[in-house]
Every structure is written in C-alpha cells, then in structure tokens.
Write a structure and sequence with these properties.
Elements (H helix, E strand, L loop, with lengths): L2 E2 L2 E2 H5 L1 H19 L4 H30 L11 H41 L18 H38 L2
Antiparallel strand pairs: 1-2
Helix pairs in contact: 2-3, 2-5, 3-4, 4-5
Protein name: DUF2231 domain-containing protein
Keywords: Membrane, Transmembrane, Transmembrane helix
C-alpha cells in the first residue's frame, strides 16, 4: 500500500476532490449562468475540469490500495467499502463527462464573443470583409449553447451530489457509530 509518513495515501488524497469538485461546481455554475463573468472565470474552470477528474482518479486508486490492505481491513471489502467505491467511480465518470461538454460550451461562447466584437467593428472579420451586424450563426449557436449549458449544469449538480455521497459514506465508515 502507498503511504506518506506512515499514513495511508487515501485519507490524504480524498481532500483534493473534496475541495476541487465543489469549487468546479460553484465556478462552473457561475460561468454558465452569469455571462459577464465568463471572461474572468474561463481559465479557472478549464483547469478545474481537468484537475477534478484527476484528483478523483487518485482518490479511487489510493482507496483501492487502502481497502486491499489486510492490516486495515482483515475481512476484505465490506458492503460499505463497495458503496463508497461505487460513489467514487460514478463521480469520476460524471467529471469525465463534464470535460467535452464544458469545453464545447466555452468554445461556442468564445465564438459568440468574437462575432460580437467583429460586429461592433473592433476587429476585422476573419475573411477580411467587414462584419455584418447580424451574425447568421447566432441563433443556432444560442440554441446549442442553451442545450449544452443545461447539460453542464445537470452534470455539475450531479457531481456535487455524488461527491457529497462519497464523502458521507467514507465518513460514516470512519466516524459512524
């Protein structure tokens, strides 16, 4: 089993997703729901979409190593450990699902902002012609962004609930009476 200073890695590693996932949920909701904040939050949310699943993977891997240690768990995997592990795996797959949906939403938003800037005359159009005040892709982009935004919000809410379930089931194993 992997240890740091004679402490199993899992109790240390779980702190990363416990912090990063709720932070991703909060900033992700703000990014999707408050368009003026997108320019300020974009890179933070982008980094979190990659760090949160990586931290969940580390927690799952270290948890498996910890649960297989017969010094701590002489009876093997109990039902509580299996439930806790299932919550962790579900969280990982939810976070992996957030990645392409959020990045596509962010790319469409960036395209929307670039079209608005061209239409305002701040920059020439990409093809060298003057920008037209009406963006022909605006309606389609708005519909796709609405659908993707709803999916992202749903996945983020589900991730928030699942990290709570995973943390609660782990705490019950350690602190439950």
């Amino acid at each position: 089993m992997t240890e740091i200073l004679d402490i199993p890695l899992h109790p240390l590693a779980v702190h990363a997703p416990v912090i990063l996932v709720p932070l991703l949920v909060l900033l992700g909701f703000a990014y999707v729901l408050v368009p003026p904040l997108r320019r300020h939050l974009g890179w933070a949310v982008a980094v979190l979409t990659l760090l949160a699943p990586a931290s969940a993977f580390l927690a799952i891997w270290s948890g498996g190593e910890f649960a297989n240690d017969t010094d701590y768990f002489p009876n093997g995997w109990t039902d509580a450990i299996r439930e806790h592990e299932a919550h962790g795996r579900r969280l990982l797959w939810i976070l992996v699902g957030v990645i392409p949906v959020w990045w596509l939403f962010a790319a469409l938003d960036r395209g929307r902002r670039a079209a608005l800037k061209r239409a305002a005359g701040d920059a020439p159009a990409a093809d060298g012609e003057a920008a037209k005040p009406d963006d022909p892709a605006a309606t389609g982009r708005r519909i796709v962004m609405l659908v993707l935004g709803l999916i992202v919000l749903g996945l983020l809410a589900w991730a928030g609930w699942t990290v709570f379930q995973s943390g609660h089931s782990g705490a019950e194993m350690v602190w439950g009476r």
